[in-house]
Design a protein that fits this description.
Blueprint (H helix, E strand, L loop, with lengths): L18 E7 L4 E9 L4 H14 L3 E12 L1 H16 L3 E5 L3 H10 L16 E3 L6 E3 L12
Parallel strand pairs: 2-3, 3-4
Antiparallel strand pairs: 1-2, 5-6
Length: 149
Amino acid sequence: MSSNPSYRQGRGDAPPPVMSLSWAHEAASTLVRVCGEIDMSNAHHLADLVVGLGREETPRVVLDLTGVRFVDLHGVRALVEIDRLLGRAGGGLTLHRPPRCLTRLLRHTGAYHLMLDLAGDGRTGTLDLTADGRADTLDLTGDGRARTI
């Protein structure tokens, strides 16, 4: 967990939240925005929220991870579990602009399939690999089509 150097503890001051979540139901999916850190202290809250939202409306959930600055293995485990449970309900999980720390963990743990958007018939995905934060298209086949590895 990283520290926030701008936070100075004083009487009545509350520490900044480790993770914040917001969500909106859209046409064919639910968008969940995650900011902060996904770690052992809160990964289960993310999983509970996302799976619950998937039960309410559509089991298709997009996690906007633009504001995430840290993810540990507990976070990866939660994402894999979310994807599994939503898949059972006929939906799935899409990761939007995952941070570099997460893409590395997904690669090293074999959970790289979470980087792919398997909605619809086009197997495409995006991942944030560039230093300036631009999202690049993931092409795993060399012919313009992405596939699960």
